[in-house]
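In this section we walk through a basic example: taking a raw amino acid sequence and producing a predicted 3D structure, encoded as discrete structure tokens. The instruction is simple. Fold the sequence below.
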Amino acid sequence: MILLRRLLGDVLRRQRQRQGRTLREVSSSARVSLGYLSEVERGQKEASSELLSAICDALDVRMSELMREVSDELALAELAQSAAATPGGPVPASVRPMLGSVSVTGVPPERVTIKAPAEAVDVVAA
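The resulting token sequence is shown next.
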């Protein structure tokens, strides 16, 4: 099962780490407790839109950029899940539009690695 809160937390953590900032710095700027921000980053808590807005402001990242990155990760996770369900099979039509020209066949179902220009993204099928 793909949990949106985990994908969102992973993207938030990467954004923070790209800036070389600590949880403490971002939690202070966003005016949210350090523990709660940590739980959001680990995908243990669902963040409200108000909280996401405060975190995005603290990170100086547009919420639309954050959501776009989460959407891309979700598409990759769906692809990995589809590959695990039908090893060696074609990518389902419902996933194809989200991936552009990417296709996956004959991939071991346990792990799909897709290299993006900016960084490598590993997606593990659960």
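Looking at the output, two observations stand out. Strands lie at 111-115, 120-124. The helical segments are 4-18, 23-30, 34-41, 49-59, 63-85, 96-99. In the next section we compare this with other chains.
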